[in-house]
Design brief:
Layout lengths: L15 H20 L6 H11 L6 E3 H8 L3 H13 L3 E5 L7 E5 L1 H25 L1 H16 L8
Antiparallel strand pairs: 1-3, 2-3
Helix pairs in contact: 1-5, 2-5, 5-6
Length: 156
């Protein structure tokens, strides 16, 4: 008699990480498609938006930008390369400390960001139409809570 192999993996729907990753990929596909006319992806939009939100200078240190994006510096650097190549951002060294680098929106980057914001707003409206305004607001609150919960830093 043959025994069925039992696995210790959780059922498909019981894995929080897997469910979050699948949902994230699905939503990224939707937003990437919406942003396609601006020539950028959702991750790039998030970086440009963070730079645009930084105040009058539109420049942030690599450390501050990485922290705001909840990304390590090497991943941020990888994501910045296409933005630099397309001349949407520039990197500059700090005058007082040559080891410190700043990321700054270019005029072209500001224009792309402005165009992309309109596309993003439409995508947000469509998302809320599909999910419902109340559910979308609850989802944002839960996700924000996860992103800012320092207890996860100590959970491993």
């Amino acid at each position: 008699m043959m025994m069925k192999h039992q696995t210790s993996q959780p059922a498909h729907g019981a894995c929080n990480c897997g469910a979050l990753r699948r949902a994230s990929r699905r939503i990224s596909q939707v937003y990437d498609a919406a942003l396609a006319p601006a020539g950028i992806k959702s991750t790039q939009f998030a970086i440009l938006s963070e730079l645009g939100r930084s105040g009058g200078s539109d420049a942030l240190s690599m450390c501050k930008l990485a922290g705001a994006m909840i990304m390590d510096r090497s991943t941020l650097g990888h994501n910045l390369r296409p933005l630099q190549r397309d001349q949407l951002v520039v990197m500059r060294l700090a005058e007082d400390d040559r080891r410190k680098r700043y990321v700054e929106l270019t005029p072209k980057g500001k224009g792309v960001l402005k165009h992309a914001r309109n596309l993003w707003l439409r995508a947000e409206q469509n998302f809320e139409k599909v999910l419902g305004k109340r559910c979308a607001a609850k989802l944002r609150a839960v996700l924000h809570g996860i992103a800012t919960n320092n207890a996860f830093d100590r959970a491993h």
